[in-house]
Amino acid sequence: RFDIVIAVDGPAASGKGTIARALAAHFGLPHMDTGSLYRAVGLAVLRAGGDPADAPLAAGCARALDLSLLDDPALRESATARAASVVSAHPDVRAALLDRQRAFARQPGGAVLDGRDIGTVIAPDADIKIFVTANLDVRARRRQAETPERDLALVRANLAERDARDSGRDAAPLRQAEDAILLDTSEMDRETAIARAFALAEARL
Ligand code: C5P
């Protein structure tokens, strides 16, 4: 078969988005950043003046997902990231976003998706699964470099809080699928990490 489905999972600021985009370009596949869906739901809740912990409100925002929020500059703010990680723990929110992600993964030709549960829940039969990780200090420095926030300790604490929530929840927690290849980018620069991901992917095809 000629469809190639690639699942890229990992914690925040691990480099999974960069690697997923590079794999998509390399194999000529469409790419979906699934974290942006949860961010859009989190942002919708904040804009409605609600609390991301309010499960019925968050599920309503997920079912009526406002796609224009995917292009909103506030999507990348740390308050939105935090709201995303809170709303993403509600099973009804995850259920509302499931079909959109599965349909993307099943399109003819294949696709690359990155997130937390692509290899475990969204596309358990993906051809290639890569679990991208890096230690917390490295991820905090990377995230600090791409945001206006100057306080490294605060960036680090926010990442640690989000990691704990994403890994500790009952609904589709962040974890490496049994058949995923681990790619630890702690000691790698961007080019090296991408080259390693290409080599891992090609070896599996
Ligand atoms: O990847 P990103 O940091 O943009 O994701 C934002 C939040 O969305 C994550 O902290 C996580 O809680 C949630 N998420 C998820 N499942 C995914 C992708 C993201 O729960 N597949």
What does this protein structure show overall?
The chain has about 200 residues and is α/β, with parallel strands linked by helices. The chain is about 50% helix and about 10% strand. It is built from 9 helices and 5 strands; from the N terminus they run βαβααααβαβααβα. It has helices at about 15-25, 35-45, 55-65, 80-85, 90-105, 120, 135-145, 150-170, 190-205, and strands at about 5-10, 30-35, 110-115, 130-135, 180-185. α2 packs across α3 (about 55-65) and α4 (about 80-85) runs parallel beside α8 (about 150-170). The longest helix is centred in the C-terminal third of the chain and has 17 residues, at about 150-170. The model has no long low-confidence stretch (mean pLDDT about 95). Cytidine-5'-monophosphate binds next to α2, α4 and α8.
Compile the SSE list and pairings.
Elements: E1 4-9, H1 16-27, E2 31-33, H2 35-47, H3 55-63, H4 78-87, H5 91-105, E3 110-115, H6 118-122, E4 128-133, H7 136-145, H8 152-168, E5 181-184, H9 190-204
Parallel strand pairs: 1-3, 1-4, 2-3, 4-5
Helix pairs in contact: 1-9, 2-3, 2-4, 3-5, 4-8, 7-8
Residues 12, 34-35, 38-39, 81, 84-85, 88, 115-117, 162, 166 line the site of cytidine-5'-monophosphate (C5P).
